Amino acid sequence: MTRTHRLWNRLVLVLIGLALLAVAGIAALPLLPSGARPVTAAALGAVVGSTVGLVAIVAAAVVLVVLAILWIVTRGRGRIRDVVGQGDLAVDDRVVAGLLRDALADRPAVLGVHAQAYRQRRPVVYARIAVRRSADLPPLLADVDRAAATAAERLGARPPLVVHLTSGLVARASGTRIAR
Question: For the chain (length 180 residues), average pLDDT per consecutive 10?
């Protein structure tokens, strides 16, 4: 999922949430004492006080809740666990992460490896490798390439692999590591 999709997902959910809060506020107006109602509440109170207005507000709230549930349920498609499968045998994405982690274990610049599989046209593995800020990238990329080749050799298949090298809070917070 790209950042744009995440932004749209959150924007739609925030708008639906605000609409539900507005509907709840309007529905709660008749419950307020008459002296505590805002000036505009008199007009809204007349609408809410009627049966037709209350039914319309409840129907709008139900529609918004159903739309929010549909929106949430339809997000996140594509995430899979199985990277390679033949017959009854399937290889999990955690196996790929473990193979990459084992192949890069002796590199002091590598802090961690995480992999997830997604179905595009076929399974694709997205590997996130946390590295130190001072890591020398060309040799590290060569090691990652060798680790991917080793993992493909052990799996017996070479699923597409997208590697993201990252250095963030983990890289700043972790101490130095000595490879032995």
Answer: 67 83 75 64 58 75 83 72 74 84 87 83 84 85 89 82 78 50
One-character DSSP codes across 68-96: HHHHHHTTTTTEESEEEEETTEEEEHHHH
Question: CATH 3.30.70.1350 residue ranges in the chain?
Answer: 79-173
The CATH superfamily assigned to 79-173 is Cation efflux protein, cytoplasmic domain (3.30.70.1350)
Listed residue (126, 121, 113, 117) closest to 84, CA to CA: 117
Using CA atoms of 100, 102, 107, 111 in order, give the dihedral in degrees to the nearest 10: 70
Which H helix or E strand runs over 14? helix 3-28
Q: By C-alpha distance, which of 123, 83, 128 is closest to 104?
A: 128
Spatial CA neighbour of 163 closest among 111, 97, 119: 97
Q: Nearest Cα to 105, choosing from 70, 129, 136?
A: 129
- H-run or E-run covering 56: helix 51-73
pTM for the model: 0.52
Instruction: Assign 29 to helix, strand or coil.
Output: helix
